[in-house]
Automatic annotation (TrEMBL):
This is MATH domain-containing protein. Keywords: Coiled coil. Pfam families: MATH_2 (PF22486). The keyword Nucleotidyltransferase does not apply. The lineage of its organism: Eukaryota, Viridiplantae, Streptophyta, Embryophyta, Tracheophyta. It comes from Brassica cretica. InterPro entries: MATH/TRAF_dom, MCC, TRAF-like. The keyword Phosphoprotein does not apply.
Length: 65
């Protein structure tokens, strides 16, 4: 399974927000009923690598319909 991050710097549905989407590559290649649990967090760093923000770990279920 290959995951990638899709970034919309000016927002996708709301124009004054940064939108981030964790996506599965080629979801159509998986069988019906396929599902996986992914746990992720977001870390925001400044230019010198100092951590400015860390989101809580969020579990997310990917599935095919």
């Amino acid at each position: 399974m290959f995951l990638y991050l899709k970034v919309h710097p000016k927002g996708k549905f709301v124009r004054d927000h940064l939108s981030l989407y964790l996506c599965v590559a080629n979801p159509e290649s998986f069988r019906f009923g396929w599902k996986r649990l992914a746990s992720y967090s977001l870390i925001l760093l400044n230019q010198v690598g100092k951590e400015l923000y860390r989101s809580p770990r969020n579990p997310l279920i990917f599935l095919t319909l």
